[in-house]
Each structure stands twice: as C-alpha cells, then as structure tokens.
Amino acid sequence: MDNFRSDTFGKLNAADYDAQHDPGTTDATVALIAGLVPAGGAVLELAIGTGRVALPLSQMGFAVSGIEASPEMVAKMRAKPGGDAIPTVIGDMADVDIEGMFDHIFLVFNTLFNLPSQEAQIRCFENVSKHLKPGGTFLIETFVPNFTGFTENQRVKTMQLEVDRLCIEAVTNDPVAQIFAFLRVHITADGMKLVPLPMRYAYPAEIDLMARLAGLRRKHRWGGWDKQDFTADSTFHVSVYEKPFS
Ligand SMILES: C[S@@+](CC[C@H](N)C(=O)[O-])C[C@H]1O[C@@H](n2cnc3c(N)ncnc32)[C@H](O)[C@@H]1O
Q: pLDDT confidence of 1, banded at 50, 70, 90?
C-alpha cells in the first residue's frame, strides 16, 4: 500500500465516517477523559477526525484543540454545532507543531497504528511530550494484536452480507514490519468500493517503551473504557502516561 499517505484515510472515509465508524464507546470515552483533566483544562486530540470525542469535551467546558491530517475530516467537524470553536492544525501528528502546552493529550480508536513505522510512532510520542505540561497526561487506545483466523499471514472475513450488498475484509500481515494491510471491498448494485487501511501495530509493552523514550511514565492501563482490568482476554487497552514534574 505504497500510495497510502496520512491524508488518504480522510479522502476515502470522510463522507460516511460517522455512519460507518461508530465504536459504541463514545460516551464512556468522554466520561473517562473528563475525569482525568482539571475543569476547563487545555486538551489536545491527535487525529481529531470529525470531532466525535472532541466536540462533547468542548461542550463540557474544556479548552479543546486538535491536530488532523485530513482537511475533509475537519470540514465534517466544522459543519457540526460548535465545530468552528475547536482550533485545529492540519498536519501529521508525528511531526506537526501546535501552539500551547496542554494538561491532557489523547489519541484514540487505534490511530497510533495509522503512523506507518516504529520511527513515526516514536516521533509522535516525542511530539506529545513536547506539548504536555509537567504533570500532564497522554491517553492512548489501541487494539491488542490478534491473529485469530489468520493462515499463512492472511485472512478474509465477511463483514456484511445482505440481499443487496456484500462487504468483505481481506487482511495481510507482515510480521517483520508489524503491519496489517486491510482492504474492505463493498459491493452493491451501484458498483464496488475499495477502502484500504495499513496499520503498523504494536503490543502494549512496545507502546510503553515508546512512551519511556519520550520521557513519559505509565500511570494506568485498563482493558476497556469502564476501567475494566487489562487481562490476557482484553481485545484493546486504554493506557495513560504522565509527564513527570522533573
Ligand atoms: C479512525 S479515525 C479517528 C478519528 C477520531 N479521533 C475518532 O475517534 O473518531 C482516524 C483519523 O486519523 C487521521 N489521521 C491518520 N493519520 C494521521 C496522521 N499521521 N496525523 C494526523 N491525523 C491522522 C485520519 O484522517 C482520521 O481522521
């Protein structure tokens, strides 16, 4: 997937992102983040998208800003009530600068893995550390790599099968680069749509190391948004890192 760039996701998905990408955890995500930040605190969302999490936090009185690679996704946020009030820098979260220091930064919905290499992910942690106030926190949500259904580093799964539509997801795994290359194929009477997504995955322990390289210490790890224990059965984790005072 050599042609996949940081703004490709938005070009392909912005039009129907909200309808197609509801994880069903938004209220719990907002509640957990709100509980980590002092009232009215400065909050930055990396890869803010269409404002799914940022908008409710802004409405609760937090001073929310964003970074996002896709102008198309930001245009969708801007079209929503309150969307214009969230200053957002268009750029790559691994490198782009943003004015200000924050009490809390977050990156949810597996989006760390949209950065295509370990190097880019490390730079992202360093960028976060540079913009966190001492004592500030960084929250991250990613899936735990899972190879159920894979044979010879690939799998195909039927996601939707109706009388008038079919969605199939094909995935290949590169265990050296740690990249899942996803391709969703949507077939309807109107034709066929291809939605690719490469994801450079990492286990929680590697993510902890990236945080340490950036001078951040792990404070929490949960196996869900209701602060469930993280166990061998957890399919994803919510982890919080802190920037020490000195
Ligand atoms: C799964 S969506 C998540 C959007 C939003 N955070 C949410 O939870 O609904 C991934 C988002 O990451 C953005 N993105 C991908 N790579 C990026 C990068 N390198 N820098 C900034 N944003 C990026 C995409 O454009 C898209 O808006």
A: confident
